[in-house]
């Protein structure tokens, strides 16, 4: 079934786009992180836009990922092959230091450009009209290099989270914004300036929001639930498989980096996929023949430490009341995996697994795509974070009673406690509540198609839509010296004024 058959909106594309004055199709480049969940997202997005017939859509994909290449060709999108290379002189940064996300992004893209100069030059010669990416920290720089007029950031997780790691520990800077809203960008030249007034307001807002995150989260959920109670939009209806807004009330509310500013409406992410991996018949039979199953998957590139893997293997051996479906994680001790209750695969059809009624728990690294899919399918999580935003997501899962967060070296006892909570049904109500929020948003949010159309119709001279990228700052701005000096000066003036009043009163 084509994406176009899913809604009335796309039945007459010529009418929808009659106001777009173009002589040839606009060229859109989609490029992002190469992990499986991100590749799924970007492949679906590419096919979604390509099947409209309105745009020429290109996606950068690893040359060895034949399944994505074939899918792109079938749906009319054009794959651009990317060959992996290791950098011998990659700059090293300590994420615990006061490094800004955009500086880290410059380092990453510098290494990539040094390795693939000819490749990037060929990419630039394609003269794309838009870049769409799920990469936070350096793709605005790529968009600028390519000379692309429009950039859309799609998001499947909290922003800047790998530098935040925890509630209440956000790094505040005046060039950052804190509202989790859309970042649609029409390109201007690189700038390194905000006005002092703007930067003061930003910094003030960040410190205010820093202490309001949990309350804002609750208010958002209550708002959605009230609307659901009045209308019951989502009940007994199949949700359209479309690009959807960032799920405020489900995702952690975190500050964003200072690379570029906001333009409404919200970010576009997708939940659900048309081009999902089909489960092997062997796996389907295994799922149907076992009443209690735990799924274990730690993503594409990273695995827990060996000590934790040994404890997970021991947990698998001891929990004879459960069957396990595992994405292979390179366990040193394979005895736990050589078991009739265990099935191990190099790739997992995760959406199929989490939607299966016999799956009772999901042990995961806590990537936001996995967290969202778990919530949608009412599956409690046991999160063992490894890197990036996973630590923030882990605590988010714990605080909102969506599962357990295990962030320690000795995890076997915690695994048992987590399973006990799941068996008692401790997380069911919270999962149902946030699943309802997701379903509501999926029903009523606009699509990435709307966002692309909006940007292409926007005049490049319209200053309300032409927003600058911020990449470099001078020393004074980086350390907020001018802002704090201004605040200090105002305090001194105020104190001198009070002192003068006291002197006059005493006379």
UniProtKB/TrEMBL annotation:
Transmembrane segments: 483-502
Keyword Transferase (UniProt): yes
Pfam families (alphabetical): UDPGT (PF00201)
GO MF annotations in UniProt: UDP-glycosyltransferase activity
Record's keyword annotation contains Transmembrane: yes
Record-linked InterPro entries: UDP-glycosyltransferase, UDP_glucos_trans
Keywords per UniProt: Glycosyltransferase, Membrane, Transferase, Transmembrane, Transmembrane helix
Annotated protein name in UniProt: Antennal-enriched udp-glycosyltransferase
């Amino acid at each position: 079934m084509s994406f176009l058959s899913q809604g009335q909106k796309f039945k007459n594309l010529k009418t929808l786009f009659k106001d777009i004055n173009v002589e040839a199709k606009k060229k859109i480049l989609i490029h992002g992180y190469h992990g499986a969940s991100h590749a799924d997202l970007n492949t679906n997005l590419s096919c979604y836009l390509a099947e409209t017939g309105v745009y020429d859509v290109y996606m950068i994909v690893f040359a060895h990922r034949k399944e994505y290449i074939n899918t792109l060709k079938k749906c009319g999108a054009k794959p651009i092959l990317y060959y992996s290379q290791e950098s011998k002189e990659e700059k090293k940064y300590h994420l615990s230091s006061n490094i800004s996300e955009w500086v880290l992004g410059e380092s990453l893209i510098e290494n990539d450009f040094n390795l693939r100069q000819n490749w990037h030059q060929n990419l630039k010669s394609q003269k794309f009209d838009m870049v769409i990416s799920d990469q936070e920290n350096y793709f605005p720089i790529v968009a600028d290099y390519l000379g692309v007029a429009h950039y859309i950031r799609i998001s499947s997780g909290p922003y800047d989270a790998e530098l935040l790691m925890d509630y209440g520990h956000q790094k505040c800077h005046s060039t950052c914004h804190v509202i989790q809203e859309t970042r649609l960008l029409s390109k201007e030249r690189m700038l390194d300036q905000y006005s002092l007034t703007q930067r003061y307001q930003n910094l003030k807002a960040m410190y205010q929001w820093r202490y309001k995150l949990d309350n804002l989260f609750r208010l958002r959920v209550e708002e959605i639930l009230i609307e659901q109670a009045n209308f019951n939009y989502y009940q007994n209806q199949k949700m359209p498989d479309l690009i959807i807004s960032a799920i405020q009330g489900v995702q952690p509310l975190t500050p964003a980096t200072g690379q570029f500013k906001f333009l409404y409406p919200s970010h576009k992410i997708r939940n659900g996929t048309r081009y999902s991996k089909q489960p092997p018949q062997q796996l389907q039979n295994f799922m149907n023949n076992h009443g209690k199953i735990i799924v274990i998957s730690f993503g594409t590139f990273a695995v827990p430490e060996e000590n934790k893997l040994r404890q997970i293997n021991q947990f698998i051996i001891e929990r004879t009341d459960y069957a396990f479906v595992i994405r292979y994680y390179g366990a040193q001790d394979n005895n736990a995996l050589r078991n009739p209750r265990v099935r191990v695969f190099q790739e997992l059809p995760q959406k199929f697994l989490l939607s299966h009624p016999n799956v009772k728990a999901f042990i995961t690294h806590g990537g936001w795509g996995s967290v969202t899919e778990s919530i949608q399918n009412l599956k409690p999580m046991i999160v063992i974070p490894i890197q990036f935003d996973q630590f923030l997501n882990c605590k988010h899962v714990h605080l909102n009673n969506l599962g357990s967060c295990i962030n320690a070296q000795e995890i076997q006892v915690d695994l048992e406690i987590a399973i006990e909570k799941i068996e008692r049904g401790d997380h069911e109500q919270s999962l149902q509540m946030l699943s309802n929020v997701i379903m509501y948003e999926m029903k009523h949010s606009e699509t990435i198609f709307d966002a692309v159309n909006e940007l292409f119709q926007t005049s490049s001279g319209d200053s309300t839509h032409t927003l600058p990228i911020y990449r470099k700052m001078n020393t004074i701005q980086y350390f907020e010296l001018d802002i704090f000096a201004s605040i200090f000066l105002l305090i001194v003036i105020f104190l001198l004024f009070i002192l003068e009043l006291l002197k006059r009163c005493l006379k």
